[in-house]
Please model this.
Amino acid sequence: MRRLASLVLLSLAVCFASMAPTLRWYVFPRAVKIPPNQYQVTILEAKPATLLNYSTLRAEKVDRITIIQTLKGNVAESKRIEKDAGRDVVVWDSLSHVAGPDGKMVSQIPERYIFDAHTQDPVHATGEMVDGDAVRREGIEFKWPFLTEKRDYQYFDAQARTSAPIHYKGVRDFRGLEVYYFEQTIPWTRVPMPKSMPIKGITPEFLAQTGITRWYTTKRMFWVDPVTGAPVNGEEIHREELRNARKLMGQDTVTAFAGHVKMREDYLRSTGELVRTNRTYVLLLTSYLPWTFAGLALVLLALALWTEARSRRPAPEPVTPS
Model:
């Protein structure tokens, strides 16, 4: 019976030992993915800010500028692209809508971002665009990979339509959560005019005829949960200028927008709660269960060896009555 028990314990030890790496290296990349139908809204604010008044063509100080960022999963496009890509693909149709203090639209820029559901690597397919312009992304945008590493990443800048390094700056504590802090500075760069303008008759084509060009610089900051790769906070110190503007505006350079953009407090809280929930699921497959199964395998192996050793002890000699 002891011999049988040791064999059972050994079989269980082997089973748990094999399940530990299987969960981490096989189940995790296949089970943990961004859902194709995800829908998310984030509201950011710059308080106070400088904004171009297109009625007077003068830059003015305003109390607040609101930026509404919407991400909507396009399931139909995901299925279409997956047929050729041969992997799970997520398509995000996003919209960055900027509103002035009166609630009226200042600009809005749509994007289509196509990426691998697990790795977040970009997937190049027809429809990848920013504000109607076809682009070919390199690196990440919006989200870091699961199990983010302590290193620099390439991050796509939608204004400039190019990618540049976003630098890892160390570990930070953000509201009780250990996060990685990343920072990217885009130097003054000439960028396209938004196709949606706030004043009827003022179009990118009209501004181009006057010789006006749009320039942009930003310092981009993210606090990223390393388990899920989701930013729990994001900020930008953002500045835009219209240059060569004397012909239309009476001066060479006019500030179109300047401000320190931050996530609104209620969205900070809801984002933090969502990240804490999702990170438990990721840790379950990458840490909690694999290490638990590895520990159980060692305990069962020790019990199997102990049971086997006991079964091999010679039976005590019978006592002969004198």
